[in-house]
Amino acid sequence: MAVKSDADLAVEIAEGAGQVLLAVRDELIANGEEDQRAIAKAGDAKAQEFIAAKLREERPEDAVLSEEARDDKARLTAARVWIVDPLDGTKEFSQGRHDWAVHIALWADGDLALGVVALPGLGQVLSSAKPLALPARAADEALRFAVSRSHPSPLIRSVIDGAQGQDVPMGSAGYKVCSVLRGETDAYVHAGGQFEWDSAAPIAIARAAGLFTSRLDGSAMVYNQDDVYLPDLIVCHHQDRQAITDSVVKALALNG
Q: Which residues, in sequence order, are CB contacts of 136 under 8 Å at separation 6+?
């Protein structure tokens, strides 16, 4: 039997985890479960179980870094590490919204090699192996920024105002990055509260599609580090890079 390519395997896992999540949510709601935290917890656990089993079966020699599993530091000397978030956007998932995601990324030999993000609420899967064509944007239109529904940031508010942009609230970090790829927004700028699994897969896809990606200070997004806290990012079209980074610099100065 031919071995699946990493790209095909990642799509299979992301799609499968998405189906698991939808089934778990539907079953719990049908049985009268109303506690959103219980729905999110059950979804996280079942998706993690599915992803872990598939990777053990298909790539037993590879290391794994997951939000929902113990961090095995053996990954720091591994040549290949899967970086996964079984359910990105637990609140949106438990509320029956569409703006949540499943993240499957592969880090290999020092950098991201692959990223797949499933958007089960939309029935769509995005892969760095098959990058989307970026939507055109008129230069005279106001920039649309993907922003958090539940955790608004004064710093990001300053960035948007400085760039004379508009905010578009939505959930899930992965969904926000994908919103730029899908043409729903033009940029996503984030400050604080994320880890490697929140951005690895969507950043790999954004890079493959030709978007600009960086930390707020302009440095590269680096993965498979000992400390997996990776709190900030910029994702945008290259034509908007200067305006957005200038606004970030001013906002950082204003907000200390």
A: none
pLDDT over 80 (residue 178): yes
pLDDT in tens, 202-247: 999 999 999 999 999 999 999 999 999 999 999 999 999 999 999 9
For residues 39 and 26, the answer to whether their CB atoms sit within 8 Å is no
**pLDDT tens track for 134-146:** 988 777 889 999 9
Was 186 annotated as part of a binding site?
A: no
Q: Which two tokens stand for residue 114?
A: 């692959």
Task: State the Cα–Cα distance between residues 182 and 254, nearest whole angstrom.
Answer: 32
* Domains of the chain: residue spans and CATH: 6-127 (3.30.540.10), 144-254 (3.40.190.80)
Q: Among 97, 101, 91, which Cα is nearest to 37's?
A: 91
* 35-53 pLDDT tens trace: 999 999 999 999 999 999 9
Cα distances (Å, whole numbers) of residue 207 to 134, 192, 213: 11, 21, 7
Most distant pair of Cα atoms in the chain: their distance: 59
Q: Is 87 annotated as a binding residue?
A: yes
d(CA 215, CA 166): 21
8 is in an annotated binding site: no
User: What is the C-alpha to C-alpha distance for residues 119 and 109, in angstroms, rounded to an integer?
Assistant: 28
Question: What tokens were used for 66?
Answer: 């997951």
